[in-house]
Specification:
alpha/beta, Nucleotidyltransferase, domain 5, Helix Hairpins, 3 domains, 5-stranded mixed sheet
Amino acid sequence: MEQFAAFVAIDWSDAKHDVCLLDVATGKTESGILTHTPEALEAWATALRTRFAGQPIAVCLEQSRGPLIYALLQYDFLVLYPINPATLAQYREAFSPSRAKDDPQDADYLLELLFHHRDRLKPWRPDNAKTRTLQYLVEHRRRLVNDRTRISNRMTALLKAYFPQVLQWFDDIRTTLVCEFLLHWPTLEAVQKVRPATLEKFFREHNSVRKETLAHRIAAIKAAVPLTTDPAVLHSSVLMIKALATQMQTTLEAIRAFDSEIEQLCRMHEDYPLFASLPGAGPVYAARLTAALGTDRNRWTTVEELLCFSGVAPVLERSGKSTWIRWRYFCPKFLRQSFHEYAGESINHAFWAKAYYMSQRARGKSHQAAVRALACKWIRIIYKCWQTRTPYSEVRYLESLRKKGSPLLAYMAHNPS
């Protein structure tokens, strides 16, 4: 157990933080308020370093990411212990059944948690800068993908109301081609006034060059009939579709920029080839899995720890004679999403993964439950490859199943499709 000169608990908020400090040498507890400004945080940390001669100080705070923890990361003498908000809430309720909440009191509770139960808490050891950059990039990219979906849904709903033919002419409206098309010709009347040669030139400039597709699309444009001619609907819809198309263009450009940055960073990451070897991982999931596990091989001592931490493993509850299994509520959501989505994609690329998924479905499990079960198996495989720094091999894994006498091989033999 690392020896600390002091224990600090911080109940953070947007503008100020309630701080409670225990000086180990004197046994005295101090309370105060820390303003959330870079200058105030710098002065506070510098004072702590001077007061305790640079000795390690344990800091407990109710978050694992955010401006406060980013600010504290630069001080090497601070050992950070992030606490799940649910943990603090349950601890508070044990002494305050009325659920009364007060920030200074929460700082006291955090200090008690840290001082008396630090053997059960894990200090946060940040990964190297390259891995942390990749973690932030893939998470930001996912948010942009969610924005793309949201804007696409709004565009689809709006086009159905006044210009539904666009949804028939283009397979996917989440493209620069469709955005440019709508910005040029936001109504059927506008596009029908354009000469076929102009339309053909526009499509070719946007990499739509198949003669059959061009001929069919231009013919459909000329033969289309407007859904509505109400000027009120058209005028308002034109303004909105242009706004949405502009947002979609910006989002698509941002995703491409993130993809480029992620690709460059992955090329330099020592563990990326391990995850790129996974069937169906591709550049997106390989990058997300690289960021998920990082480079610290001591972060999890067993694969079961990773299964629980990721939220893929379910929770077993017992009360009296009753036993039930439920979904794990508190976990890093993006981490669980990464494993779950990769498992779903692997069904189309790994023969055994598809067979395992189908066997779970045959047992009556829902699609989501079957994918979660498959994700559990993938985590075990990925963890082993990661720990041994060995790229994944389908042949090697199938051979290990044969040696263990896995019933999955028998299922695959009887269900080859």
